[in-house]
Automatic annotation (TrEMBL):
This is non-specific protein-tyrosine kinase. One of its GO terms (cellular component) is plasma membrane. It is an enzyme of class 2 (transferase). InterPro entries: AAA_dom (IPR025669), Bact_polysacc_biosynth/exp (IPR050445), GNVR (IPR032807), P-loop_NTPase (IPR027417), Wzc-like_C (IPR005702).
Length: 833
């Protein structure tokens, strides 16, 4: 049907061009102006299209919301559980004395340590413990109304299995409890077929699988009849599941925090896995710390053994040196010898001083013995007599000194010849002789002591000559001994520290935020899904409006009509739906106060302004195709003009498909065609109507050559006869888009009127009218917008609730059919039109 309509439209345009080829084209500027008038955004048309598409937009919004609801209804929610850990930075090297080297490595040690912890958490070490502790190798499900739900931690049954055929891994095995003590399983696959009914707790041997099903505390009456199934997963599948859903990220490198999260369809399962990861990671950290401590202790033990051997060898070498040299400490021995040598030197100095003193005493005593000097005592001659260490000599010298004082005292009273003086002189001589003998003996004693000191000094000098080589040897032996002793002591201390650490090993992290059971799924986000659905519906609605606007090819309102053509718009005729008509007919006489009558009166007034200078007027009414209301407008406009007191006659020149006689309910036995062939006169063909001033002449029998008849001189004679009796001659012409008869009449008309039907006439028809105006120089061309169904069609906010039914839409050569009342489907179709 669409192909036929397009072909028809192309035919209309070609006919219009051909029909107007007889006259020269109008100015190019005018045509350009017409083309430009159809460009740009027509806001009124856009608003009209939007209003007419509003129900579709609402329907698309409802569909978008429904699609969102269905997506949420049939999509499993995904939950995410999260915990936050703080890792305490601690360097093991610092414990064994390597802190300086680690500190020199720079600040990247913390980030690298956190990255290492992330890899530890996502390693097989953690995954294996998760599989074993959480029983992730078996998944239990129950089939719901729409979706299946995983029963994690609340399954009414538990299975123990031994898989012999690897093809049974990751396969869905159905299970139904037929009674509290019996169940049936069903599986059909490429590997094997498992089916049958068995007792709960019974070990069942199936092809490739040993299975034992037991009930749990969640088993109850509601369990019977439910459809369950389970899957046994291999390690690779479980590891892939953990790797996909477990996320470990460094939350803050500065704060040394790590975030652990897990996503799953089951919120409780996600929480338990995250908490178990924390626990397993803590245990792994403790085991790793203990392992590191044990490894360090083993290393310390090895080093202690090596250093003990080194220490023992160093001690043996040093012991041999001591035993050989009889010296434990060469340096102290050197100091002792030096001290002894100084002491001997000091003693030698004292002995020499005593020898000098004895020599002085001997000289003074000898001089006193010879001269017997009485003027000066021995004490006065030798002041240092008190330093003599010989007590006998000191006693004799003291006696001598006393004798000298006594002799000096007696000599003042006696002379030397007296007995007293002689006795004293004799006693002094004896004392002097004793002193000399004692001095001689003391000299010998001093010489013996000096000789002894010399011998001692020689012995010390001999010992000092061998000390440098022994000191060097001792230093060489002491260095490895001291190094071995220090290292051994340090290793023993570290071993004690590590043993203490091993006894109280704890994980070096803190759980800042433990995982909690998530209440709201992270996907799908209900608000976002609904927003996307509604936005999609709105987008499609706007797209529909845009497409309908771009594809809008009919005239809807007067604004579109005015923009598309330079012809004057006489007015707008509203829709008449007071009654349904099989064919167009005169309605203004029966409804003189109706909206449609008022609209046509307005058109009559505009016609009076256009042709006020002429008393006799020829008005032609045409359209592009049939069904645009040409005949309806002709008879009712003629009726309104006649009701104003003017004599009006309507001529039906649509001889191929006459309708004027049907509008007035008359016959079409004779008319225009018989007048033009001189079979009947004009008076014989005039027919009366219900309006006294209005008559009409029908088309008459259809001739084979309507165009030739219109071009004949008889047509001009007929018009001249009618001008004598009538003020207005209204001509209902054929559609110009189908035949050229209408163009011939429009050239003769004083006022050619072009009918455009709202929401029926295409915009290409207006272009056809513009071409006709330019090609035929129809400067007085006027147009009327017919069948305006809503106030939007007027473009001025004006509308009526009346109209007419013309059986519109029929082709030119189709008979109009009866307009049946619209059904409910048709009414809904109009809403979506």
């Amino acid at each position: 049907m669409a192909i036929n309509e397009n072909a028809e439209l192309e035919s209309l345009i070609r006919n219009a061009i051909d029909g107007g080829a007889e006259q020269p084209a109008a100015a190019t500027a005018g045509g350009a102006a017409d083309e430009e008038g159809s460009e740009g955004l027509d806001l009124s048309t856009l608003a009209l299209v939007a209003r007419r598409s509003l129900l579709w937009v609402l329907l698309l919004l409802v569909l978008g919301g429904s699609a969102s609801w269905l997506y949420l209804r049939y999509t499993k929610p995904v939950y995410k559980s999260t915990s936050l850990l703080k890792i305490d930075q601690r360097s093991e090297a610092g414990v064994v004395g390597l802190g300086g080297q680690i500190a020199a490595a720079g600040p990247s040690v913390g980030a690298s340590k956190l990255a290492g912890e992330v890899q530890l958490i996502k390693s097989e070490i953690i995954y294996k413990q998760l599989r074993d502790s959480l029983n992730l190798n078996v998944n239990y499900y129950v089939q719901g109304t729409v979706l299946e739900s995983e029963l994690y931690g609340n399954s009414p049954f538990h299975i123990a299995y031994v898989v012999r055929d690897k093809e049974l891994y990751n396969q869905k095995i159905s299970l139904v409890f037929v009674s509290p003590t019996r169940y049936s399983i069903d599986y059909s696959g490429t590997a094997a077929t498992l089916s049958g009914e068995y007792a709960v707790g019974q070990q069942v041997t199936l092809p490739g699988l040993d299975l034992t099903v037991t009930t749990t505390s969640y088993f109850g009456p509601a369990t019977l009849g439910e459809k369950y199934h389970f899957t046994i997963q291999d390690e690779g599948t479980v590891n892939g599941y953990l790797e996909k859903n477990l996320a470990v990220d460094i939350s803050s490198a500065d704060a040394n925090t790590i975030q652990i999260s897990f996503t799953d369809f089951n919120a409780k399962k996600a929480q338990r896995i995250v908490n178990k990861v924390d626990t397993v990671y803590q245990r792994a950290k403790v085991l790793r710390e203990q392992e590191n401590t044990a490894r360090t202790l083993r290393y310390l033990d090895q080093q202690l053994d090596v250093n003990y051997d080194n220490l023992q060898r160093a001690e043996n070498r040093y012991q041999g040196f001591v035993e050989k040299t009889k010296t434990y400490d060469v340096k102290s021995e050197v100091a002792d010898l030096a001290a002894k040598s100084e002491d001997l030197e000091e003693q030698r100095l004292k002995l020499n001083q005593n020898m000098v003193l004895l020599n002085d005493i001997a000289r003074v005593v000898q001089q006193a013995h010879i001269t017997r000097n009485e003027n000066e005592t021995i004490e006065q001659s030798i002041p240092g007599l008190g330093d003599i260490n010989d007590p006998l000599l000191s006693q004799l010298l003291s006696q001598l000194n006393g004798m000298q004082w006594d002799q000096e005292r007696v000599s003042r009273s006696y002379t030397g010849a007296t007995e007293a003086m002689q006795q004293k002189n004799a006693l002094m001589a004896y004392t002097l002789s004793s002193i000399l003998r004692q001095i001689t003996q003391a000299r010998k004693t001093l010489l013996n002591k000096v000789a002894l000191l010399d011998r001692q000094q020689n012995l010390i000098d001999t010992k000092q000559q061998g000390l440098p080589s022994r000191a060097t040897e001792q230093a060489r032996l002491q260095r490895p001994l001291a190094l071995a002793e220090g290292t051994y002591t340090m290793l023993m201390g570290k071993k004690v520290d590590y043993n203490i650490q091993k006894a109280g090993t704890t994980a070096d992290f803190q759980i800042l935020f433990p995982a909690s059971e998530p209440r709201v799924p992270i996907s799908p986000v209900r608000l976002l899904v609904y927003a996307i659905g509604l936005a999609g519906g709105l987008f499609l609605g706007l797209g529909l409006i845009a497409v309908r606007y771009l594809m809008h090819n009919t005239i809807t309102n007067t604004r579109e009509l005015e923009r598309s053509t330079q012809a004057s718009v006489l007015g707008v005729i509203p829709t008449y739906d007071k009654e349904k008509m099989e064919v167009s007919r005169l309605v203004v006489n029966d409804n003189p106060k109706s909206a449609i009558s008022e609209a046509i009166r307005s058109i009559r007034t505009n016609l009076d302004f256009i042709s006020s200078a002429k008393k006799k007027r020829l008005i032609s009414v045409t359209s592009t195709i049939s069904g645009e209301g040409k005949t309806f407008v002709t008879v009712n406009l003629a009726g309104i003009i006649a009701m104003s007191g003017q004599r009006v006659i309507v001529l039906d020149l649509d001889m191929r498909k006459p309708k004027v006689n049907l509008a007035f309910g008359a016959e079409n036995v004779k008319g225009i065609s018989t007048i033009l062939i001189d079979r009947h006169s004009v008076a014989e063909c005039i027919q009366r109507t219900s309006i006294e001033a209005l008559q009409f002449i029908s088309a008459g029998p259809t001739p084979p050559n309507p165009s030739e008849l219109i071009l004949s001189p008889r047509f001009d004679q007929m018009l001249a006869e009618l001008y004598e009796s009538y003020d207005v001659v209204m001509i209902d012409t054929p559609p110009v888009g189908l035949v050229t008869d209408g163009i011939l009449i429009m050239r003769r008309a004083d006022i050619p009127i072009y009918i455009v039907r709202a929401d029926y006439s295409r915009k290409a028809f207006i272009k056809n009218m513009n071409r006709l105006m330019r090609a035929n120089n129809l400067t007085r061309m006027c147009t009327i917008l017919n069948d305006a169904q809503s106030k939007g069609a007027y473009g001025y906010g004006y509308g009526y609730g009346y109209g007419y039914g013309s059986g519109g839409g029929q082709g030119y050569y189709e008979d109009p059919g009866a307009a049946a009342p619209p059904t409910l489907a048709q009414k809904l179709g109009r809403l979506f039109k």
